[in-house]
Write a structure and sequence with these properties.
By secondary structure, this protein is of the alpha/beta class. Helices cover 32% and strands 25% of the residues. The chain contains 7 helices and 10 strands. The protein has a 6-stranded mixed beta sheet, sandwiched between helices. The longest helix is centred in the C-terminal third of the chain and has 18 residues. The chain starts with 7 loop residues before the first strand and ends in a 13-residue tail after the last strand.
């Protein structure tokens, strides 16, 4: 049986936060079907890893690959093509507030090269149905609850059938019940479609209830925690 290639891989990579190195010697592999949490206190470099994966921050030392693209030495013209292969979900949703849910998704499809109106409409209908928002296509974002806005953001992330979904504190602005619904949605996508998910969170309850691989950021390092029982609670608050 052929061994799967990782969708994201770092080897001895130094991760920048602005101009300063915040994590040294990162080794990380994310394979198709993985659900990987990145946890740690504020300021330990969690989001900096995400920014490096999506090429918002450069990788100056070590090697990194995301969705087949080498992050070390990545050319600016390659960045849009890299991002088409991944879906990104943010804590604050980042929807365009001046247009409907449907038009938010249409904007992304057009920006990523879709041309045919029928195909775009079918794709929008498909992803909204996948997240349980098919009846809200004509609503404006301000007419939706926080949980509904995040479901739309996940639908947006699914538009180009990504190899991996990158989620930066996707439940951070939501109450516990709504957060639970978002986690059920993400874990369902992971399980049913085999889409890899990399999720930043500081919520211990989430990764206890929805198990996955856990990378802990602490003391300028980020390492895979082999023993779930040994995860340092103090490091994840």
């Amino acid at each position: 049986m052929e061994e799967k290639s990782p969708v994201i891989s770092f080897e001895n990579a130094d991760i920048l936060g602005g101009d300063a190195t915040v994590i040294y010697g990162l080794d990380m592999k994310v394979y198709p079907g993985d659900f990987v949490y990145i946890v740690g206190k504020v300021g330990t470099g969690k989001t900096s890893i995400i920014r490096t994966i999506i090429a918002e921050s450069p990788l100056k030392k070590g090697s990194g690959i995301a969705c087949g693209y080498k992050l070390d030495g990545l050319k600016d013209k390659e960045i849009p093509y890299l991002r088409r292969k991944m879906g990104v979900v943010f804590q604050d949703f980042q929807l365009l507030m001046d247009r409907t849910v449907e038009d938010n998704l249409l904007f992304v499809l057009k920006a990523t090269g879709w041309k045919q109106e029928k195909a775009m409409n079918e794709r929008i209908e498909y992803v909204l149905k996948a997240v349980g928002m098919e009846l809200k296509a004509h609503k404006m974002p301000h007419q939706l609850s926080g949980g509904e806005q995040q479901r739309v953001a996940i639908a947006r992330a699914l538009l180009n059938d990504p190899e991996v979904i990158i989620a930066d504190e996707p439940t951070g602005n939501l109450d516990n019940e709504t957060a639970d619904g978002i986690m059920k949605l993400l874990t369902g996508i992971n399980r049913e479609k085999g889409t890899a998910i990399v999720m930043v969170t500081h919520n211990r309850q989430i990764f206890d209830k929805y198990p996955g691989k856990v990378m802990v950021c602490k003391d300028e390092r980020c390492t895979l925690q082999e023993d779930e029982e040994a995860i340092d609670l103090e490091a994840t608050i």
